[in-house]
Amino acid sequence: MKDVLPPAVSKWQYVEEKARAVLESFAYRELRTAGTLDRAYVVHARWQHEPVTRWYRIAHAGEQPRIEAAVFGLPAPTGDAEVMGMTIGLLSEIGIPASRLALRLGADDETRALLATLHTGVEPQVVARASEQQTFFEIHANGTRLAAGARNDELVPALGGPPVPTLVLEVDLEPVISAIDDPAESFEPPLTAFFACDTARARTWALQAAHRLRLDGIRAELEHDDLPLDEQRERAAILNARLTVVVHDEDLHAGHVLLEDHGTDRRELVALSDLDATIRQRVD
């Protein structure tokens, strides 16, 4: 996998979080393994613990970046239709609408009829009618393959396990992310507050205030160098901060700071004891 730097990494994180949410809603559970899902299934004899096992993993370092999913114990054709519908929904949720997707499908008539009841918005291109063979599918966008899946009921027995219906899915992350039109910058989490300080004492206070906000889940930054306030405000603008907290030494003595809201162009003095609550209110 090539290096992915900010802000591009935010786009990757967005895709992975959306994919996780969809998979979890279909009752898949994440598996951490250095091997394949089917190997882990056989090694741990999961058929002894549950009739249906739904697992997924996200491959990164040292591997082709992808999402792998497998469902064990779910027979065709309802299981096949379910996984195809889930994959189309996952790609749509990520930001690739069904209107841009093409589904190449090998499946029997019953599976195709069940898929039609899910109203995915994608008309399949039937490349084979699976009567004796097992279901397979590929999903493309603009001629590039994004995902592929297949039923392979011989997979578990080939690894030494019992006959278990098995359907596997792979989503290729790099082409999926490339297919999303929105720029990487739009996926970066916004900076809520930037602290601009005019003295060392003001920076010490701001360090403590920013620390509280950060631990409360609010994205904050402060200027650590002794720069003029105008330059600090410029940096806040470059970082696209929603709020700038201007900390003057004399204001601290008076028990307040200046809060500049760039979303509303509002400037007000806020009591030190009310600052955290005020910032949370502005971004809720």
Structure description:
With 284 residues, the protein is an alpha/beta fold. It has two domains: 8-182, BirA Bifunctional Protein, domain 2 (2-Layer Sandwich); 189-283, Rossmann fold (3-Layer(aba) Sandwich). It is built from ten helices and 13 strands. It has helices spanning 8-25, 37-43, 78-94, 109-116, 155-158, 173-178, 200-215, 229-238, 249-254, 275-283; strands spanning 29-30, 53-59, 66-72, 101-106, 124-128, 136-141, 144-151, 166-172, 193-197, 220-222, 243-247, 256-261, 266-271. The strands form two sheets. The chain has an eight-stranded mixed beta sheet with strand order 1-2-3-8-7-6-4-5, with helices on both faces. The mean pLDDT is 94.
Provide a quick synopsis of the model.
By secondary structure, the chain is an alpha/beta fold. The chain has helices spanning 8-25, 37-43, 78-94, 109-116, 155-158, 173-178, 200-215, 229-238, 249-254, 275-283, and strands at residues 29-30, 53-59, 66-72, 101-106, 124-128, 136-141, 144-151, 166-172, 193-197, 220-222, 243-247, 256-261, 266-271. α1 (8-25) packs antiparallel against α3 and α3 packs across α4.
